[in-house]
Amino acid sequence: MSQDQDRTFIVTFVGVIAVLVVVTIILIALAVMTRGPGHIAEERETIEYQRAERNLQPPGAVRLTGEPMPELAVAEPEPAAADLTPQDINQNYCMSCHATGVMNAPVTGTEGDWTARLGERGFDGLVQNAIDGIGAMPPRGGNPRLSDDEIRETVRYMLEESGISVN
Ligand code: HEC
């Protein structure tokens, strides 16, 4: 090969590389302009949200094939505490301790267990302690769903069962 041929080759080679570099830069610029990097991140976020939403569905509620879901048997919701009478609440949530005096709980039905407490704190004081918890008794007897009013009426009921009536 002569030196002239070498030079021609090198010039052509460098020229082709230069053209390719320019074309690449133009393509990248076009890509960024039409679908900027922000766009891609946004799309990915949407897909991630959709996936997370799907993952949060209860088991059996998702079909990846896209067929409609058959009707699922839905469990009856637990009756709201609001549907319960003071008598029910007492029976369900309080008597476990107050029937027999577990951990020195005042026994419902035994007047003497209540009179001193009532004398000291009054009805409102008893209700407040039943709401906040006292000694070994957890707040609201361990049932945070019970409202203040429900606790109040239940304490009234407990006292009545013990032969004490309060206004
Ligand atoms: C886990 C056992 C337990 C349950 C359940 C429970 N209690 Fe008690 N309760 C206690 C104990 C123990 C005491 C006595 C605490 C003390 O004086 O140290 C007490 C005390 C009380 C008192 C007297 C508070 C005072 O100021 O002297 C009231 C009123 C009361 N409970 C109401 C209720 C009501 C209403 C419920 C149901 C919603 C309930 N308790 C459920 C254990 C329980």
UniProtKB/TrEMBL annotation:
Domain named Cytochrome c: residues: 81-162
Transmembrane stretches, start-end: 9-33
PROSITE patterns: CYTC
Entry keywords, A to Z: Electron transport, Heme, Iron, Membrane, Metal-binding, Transmembrane, Transmembrane helix, Transport
GO molecular function: electron transfer activity; heme binding; iron ion binding
Pfam families, per the entry: Cytochrome_CBB3 (PF13442)
InterPro entries xref list: Cyt_c-like_dom, Cyt_c-like_dom_sf, Cyt_CIE
Protein name listed in UniProt: Cytochrome c domain-containing protein
Organism of this sequence: Alkalilimnicola ehrlichii
